[in-house]
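pinned: reference chain
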Amino acid sequence: MNNTDNFKYGGREAPIGVFDSGVGGLTVAREIMRNLPSEKIVYFGDTARLPYGNKSKETIIRYSRQIVRFLIKQDVKAIVIACNTASAFALDAVSREFDIPVIGVIHAGAEVAASATKNHRIGVIGTLGTIGSGIHEHYLHILDPEIMVIGKACPLFVPLVEEGWLDDPVTETVARRYLDPLKEKDIDTLILGCTHYPLLRKLIGRVMGSHVQLVNPAYETALQLKKLLGERNMLSTSAGTEEFPYRFFVSDLADEFRKFANSILPYDVEMTQKVNLEEKEDE
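pinned: its structure tokens
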């Protein structure tokens, strides 16, 4: 395939579309900002309909289609599904339906974990939906059938992160309650299988111990995106000259989103725009 064959959206200097059910995907946006500083970003957080972790596959696919259509209208050149649940349930569907590069946050992390493990025992923590999907186990067994995957849903981590209790005694108590059973399974690698969880990396590392390698799929996804754009000759050459390189949209709670974004991003988010995707579908 030619570098730009069948590339119908955006162009070299077009932004990257990134979406999540809410604020967790900002950890992916942060890694893109750090590792691809010349790229522009259009971020959508579906804050009116979160969490995705307790929704059906059909519902998540429907939501993801709506968001992808919205991002395409923003003239993006590629899309990152910065949500583990949506990556598990909707990546294949939207990749087939839309003629634009789409990547999720699961595969890159699985590859790194498979390479990192020495004893073939890998833990995965995530939402109920992500763990229940078995998607990490599926990818890891493709990479190495001998790997044993131990999944653990940690649903309270998300509200604790959004409350800002990143290194709080309450959060540590919850973490030990969740993670002690994984420690008993003798894992040597742990995938942070929810985009909120990298914000708890320090605490999780302290609970698990230094002998367990933590895999941050947000970072690995940014590297995968960089590789993809490089292979397609679509890396931006603007060198950060855009005055407002990052745009943020949400389906609700714009002020709350902006405050959280400013607490974790290396960029001052001055405005977040609220959009109604259901109305957009009717336009």
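why pinned: Residues 1-6 have pLDDT under 50 and may be disordered. The chain has two domains: 16-104+220-282, 107-217.
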